[in-house]
Design a protein that fits this description.
Length: 112
């Protein structure tokens, strides 16, 4: 059973940065795609960013230019670099592996 483990969350002030990491127990290239979702209190889980097996990255409009997804295949890790964070980015962030693999989630709180 493949496991995905997130790290790097926490509390940050508006305008700050965080980098989330998702490390897989196996090769991340076994997945057709990997990505990050988030879920804020009282809201549906939403897709934040994805990266395909071939390395194509995409992200939702509200985070374009602020969030960047990348990977290190040697470390079996996918990253989400989050810059210029806003209070609206506060959520539990989940690592996802195509098509139905999930991490346990990690809290990101943006507050002064």
């Amino acid at each position: 059973q493949v496991r995905l483990a997130e790290s790097g969350g926490g509390l940050v002030q508006p305008g700050g940065s965080l980098r989330l990491s998702c490390t897989a127990s196996g090769s991340i290239l076994d997945f057709d795609a990997m990505g990050w979702y988030r879920q804020a209190p009282g809201k549906y889980r939403e897709l934040v960013a994805t990266i395909t097996k071939t390395g194509n990255a995409s992200s939702r409009e509200t985070v374009k230019g602020r969030f960047f997804i990348s990977r290190d295949t040697a470390k079996n890790t996918v990253y989400l670099q989050m810059n210029n964070l806003e209070p609206e980015d506060t959520a539990v962030y989940f690592c996802w592996g195509a098509y139905d693999f999930w991490g346990q989630g990690i809290q990101v709180t943006v507050s002064s």
